[in-house]
Amino acid sequence: MTYSELRYAHHPEDVKTYNTEELRNHFLIEGLFQDDSVRLTYSMYDRFIVGGVKPVKKAVQLETIDDLKAEFFLQRRELGIVNVGGAGVVEVDGKTYELERKEALYVGSGNKEIIFKSSSADSPALFYINSAPAHKSYPVKKVSRKDAEIIHLGEEKFANKRILNKLIVNSIVPTCQLQMGLTELVEGNVWNTMPAHVHARRMEAYFYFDLEEGQTISHFMGQPQETRHIFLKNHDAVLSPEWSIHSGAGTSNYSFIWGMAGENLDYGDMDGVSPNDLR
């Protein structure tokens, strides 16, 4: 079963007036993983799709949705998948790809049948997915942890020591515009993407996981001089417009997956913001 919702884009002047409930309704994505179903949020920010798939008792197929007006989901789109649960399998037009926890799979446009399975119902796979429009088809490619580009960032004294794993980026796998990676905060560190930045050429979505039960994350968004915050729990995602910072601090360490789409594939294309300049 596939469930989907549509989110519109927002002018930053309008977002300044949103109360807590409105902010959460427009940008927060909850309940991504429901048994034996696909949950999708279609955003007008670069027509980016955020989703979750949790096969437990049966295989689950990625079906097209009305908003795409397409014969099949990847008719004009590309897809990135990261497994954040137990071991699982993704079948792409009959070919099988096994994904362990924190492994990724890129699926190019034109592939018609995408099926998700868990290796064990007792420890189901949790497939986090991102999708963006694609102008051509690139080959399917699995990206394991050993294939990732790993970068160590931050310092203990600033509580932002973290390990960045580039998974679906153009230096590893050719894509049209989709990029995805996984960042892990070292125990005792809580800040992500600080110092903050914006990149007007790309939108972004963050998905938070590995957060201990009972803990929370405050995700910061908005223009650098007009910031807002949203409190999130484990397995929540949040949309980040092109004009917005995307940063956060947790009450414990955690991991998160970043996904991007937009005008270019230059990972370093960002405009930094000094912590002292944030408002």
UniProtKB/TrEMBL annotation:
Q: What EC designation does it have?
A: 5.3.1.17
Q: In which pathway does it act?
A: Glycan metabolism; pectin degradation; 2-dehydro-3-deoxy-D-gluconate from pectin: step 4/5
Q: Which cofactor does it need?
A: Zn(2+)
Top-level EC class, please? isomerase
- Per its UniProt record, what Gene3D superfamilies does this chain match? Jelly Rolls, pectin degrading enzyme 5-keto 4- deoxyuronate isomerase, domain 1
- Reaction(s) catalyzed by this protein? 5-dehydro-4-deoxy-D-glucuronate = 3-deoxy-D-glycero-2,5-hexodiulosonate
- The UniProt record gives the binding positions of Zn(2+) as 197, 199, 204, 246
Can the keyword Plastid be found in this entry's annotation?
Answer: no
Q: What InterPro entries does this protein map onto?
A: KduI, KduI/IolB_isomerase, KduI_N, RmlC-like_jellyroll, RmlC_Cupin_sf
Question: How many and how are cofactors bound here?
Answer: Binds 1 zinc ion per subunit.
**Has UniProt tagged this entry with the keyword Cell inner membrane?**
no
Q: What are the UniProt keywords, alphabetically? A: Isomerase, Metal-binding, Zinc
Q: Name one Pfam family in it.
A: KduI
Question: One GO biological process from the UniProt record?
Answer: D-galacturonate catabolic process
CDD domains with a match to the protein in the record: cupin_KduI_C, cupin_KduI_N
Query: What is stated as this protein's family in its record?
Result: Belongs to the KduI family.
For this entry, the protein name equals 4-deoxy-L-threo-5-hexosulose-uronate ketol-isomerase
Species for this entry:
Flagellimonas hadalis
